[in-house]
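In line with agreed milestones, the collection of sequences with tokenised folds has grown. One record among many is set out beneath this paragraph:
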Amino acid sequence: DDEDEKKEEKNKKSKDNNNNNNNNNNNNNNNNNNNNIRWQKIQRLCDKEVHTEKQAFQRKLREEIEKNEQVFEDLCKWDYDGIYHKYRSKQNWRQDVPENGVTAMVNEHELLLVQMNSSDVSFHPKHIYDFDVYLSDLCTRAHKLNDSFQSEMKTIFASCRGCHFFSGPVKTLERCKMKAQLSYKRETYPKSAHVIDMLRSEAEFDSFATLKEGVLYFVKCIETTKKGKMLEIMRVKNEFREQYNKRDNNNNNNNNNNSEDNIYSKYLKLPIPNKYGDIKINVIFKHKNESIVGEVQFAVKFMRQLGQPLHEIYEVSRQQDLMLGSRAQLTRNSFAFQLKMAGFNSHALSQLMLFYPLQFRRWSHDTFEPNSLGQNFLCQMAMRDKLQYALAHDLLTGDFIPSDIVHKQLSTCDKHGTYPFMYALWKQATTDHFALFCPFDMNKPNDMWCYIDKVYTSCVSFAARNTAMDVLALLIWLEGKIDKKYWEEFVQTPEEHEGFTPLMTVILCQSNLSEQLIKLLLPSNYKEKPQFWKINCIEKYVWSYLFIYFFCFISDLFLKKKKKMTFK
């Protein structure tokens, strides 16, 4: 009875423990779910509010548009075609393209030379010059010309009907740097030259009619008066036109003009914008042999007031896109991803060594995963022909990848049992290259030279494939590393797939053959071994049987045989 009671108590305790563990797991899951639910609730609430505000925004905006639908349609279709052909390309919307603009005093090539000659791998002169030196020069030019620019704009809009003119502050250096690094990160050097709105003015109007008149007045003023000598239009960004074309294209694709999200004007059936829009004109301002690109914004007052609530909700709603986008960007910009994309290209790999030296020092298993054949980073690197020795030397001798990682990879074979130094014998052009991929001292005897992999490919067979250097010199050098007994075995051992011996491989791969080369790969008693001339291969390589005739012809030619060989 006492034993039964003890068993019952023990079972009860174990059940209680299991229940507690389950409860803890459920609580953890609930906490995670609650976090997700909280964010989803916020997201759904914001989406709902955005939808409600959009509809309210569109209804109020439609009332204003329907006062004169033709005017709004003209605005939506207006596009300025008087831009000089040089500025019709987006790549030329820069501060260094106009005459007397802000240009870089040091070119990209010169900065690259400075970086290459520097002993500090963390020094990046191109980055420093672009976002500090050049951008500071641009900011200085902006502050120098700002008063003249604003005065000129104020004079132009003084006689513009229904216009309220506002002078904007010069964009701060920090804000310009952020914009250049984020918005123009893929543009050409200097990227900061793409910031063309450091000088800003705003013309605000009471209606779409006066906005249209103001835009046309401004353009005409530049084209037909002496202002044209001081001002030139570089770019026009008509957001009304962009929204109109975008929604019109969507409607044509979806064939769904009755969607709840689409609201149209009464008579002309114009799509009503669902967010704030304006017209921005970037102008080249010329003053005393200096020029700079500024921006003039044309806006409707009540449209901005209507769009303010939407703007505040958008700031919360788009956080999800920001987080997901940031995560995707981190993945794209990760060192492992960039190393994989470099693909052993010397230029791309050297850039990673310059910019991310510490990442090489932090090398882990996840940095570069083996491929489907089990080939690690150094296996794949050894197979790269035309590998620059200086780059590979710096990378593998302890300054970048830790020595213990290098030795471990050099001592690890792939799925076929092949080591990096064996691939190096096939692809590399000098013995110095070979030494980088050897996990042992090449000047001392080592059993690794006598190793043969799982598909019966020896160092001799790999060396026979090498077309990057004198194969005869390579094989003579290799013969001095391998015991004579093993050399005799290797020259007679055919590979598993093709069934070729090293001699057959040489005849197939090399363009320059000699009697010395042929003899080097013949077994000492080849005349008494007819099986040496046999090619055993799988069905995939059945064509290689035909190679035997060419092989016999070459052998007879160089060895000057008197009697016909016997083949089995």
User: Anything to note?
Assistant: Residues 28-35, 539-546, 560-568 have pLDDT under 50 and may be disordered. The radius of gyration is 37 Å. The chain has 23 helices and five strands.
